[in-house]
Design brief:
This protein is of the alpha+beta class. It contains seven helices and eleven strands.
Length: 206
């Protein structure tokens, strides 16, 4: 009952919005990739975000080696004195070497970040009724929407957990969530990656 009331509330809120697009889609979702779903034959692109493509790989550290070196004082003055005794008048000069040095070697490997993002979205929406507010239609005739699982904004959740990026070319809505994910080193931010829009461009050039 509470769930139905909340969905009714969302519908009212959407239609009262001055920027409301006159369509709300609700139903079980079929996940196509990390930022695209399908509900009742409607192909929906989650707006304001961009997830890695299904075939895209990223990199993260799988092995890190640390070397420690310890040094101490040594009588370099005595050594110099033997060679330059007259000049130095037998003075004892102490020098210092580095007492501690640390060297790191990290090894990275590829992992299927695109498939991981897709699987995380599948797990999130599995057997759930998803409600999407359609905002526009893109050039591929996909409906651009913000989608919800109960009260959870799915678009925001994907960015906040590092499974997608804020698609700042089209929206700045999820910049804060992206910064928080980067700070907490979640998802993609655990390693290095090519931004999805750049990855697509580079793939077209191949």
């Amino acid at each position: 009952m509470l769930k139905k009331k909340f969905n009714v509330f969302l519908l009212l809120l959407f239609f009262m919005s001055p920027n409301a697009y006159a369509e709300v889609i609700e139903g079980k979702a079929l996940v196509i990739d990390g930022d695209t779903i399908k509900i009742k034959n409607n192909k929906i692109r989650l707006s304001g975000i961009d997830a890695p493509e299904t075939n895209q790989s990223c990199k993260k550290i799988f092995l890190s080696i640390q070397f420690l070196s310890f040094h101490k004082k040594y009588p370099c003055g005595k050594i110099s004195t033997k060679k330059l005794k007259k000049l130095l008048k037998n003075a004892l000069i102490l020098c210092k070497r580095i007492f501690l040095s640390i060297q790191f070697f990290s090894f990275k490997k590829k992992y299927p970040c695109g498939k991981i993002s897709t699987n995380k979205l599948k797990k999130l929406v599995k057997n759930e009724i998803i409600l999407c507010k359609v905002e526009n239609v893109d050039r591929y005739k996909r409906k651009l929407a913000t989608c919800f699982k109960n009260r959870l904004n799915i678009n925001s959740w994907l960015v906040r957990n590092g499974y997608a990026l804020a698609y700042v070319k089209y929206s700045k809505k999820y910049i804060l969530q992206e910064k928080e994910a980067e700070r907490d080193k979640l998802g993609l931010w655990q390693g290095t990656f090519e931004k999805p829009w750049n990855w697509r461009k580079n793939e077209k050039r191949k």
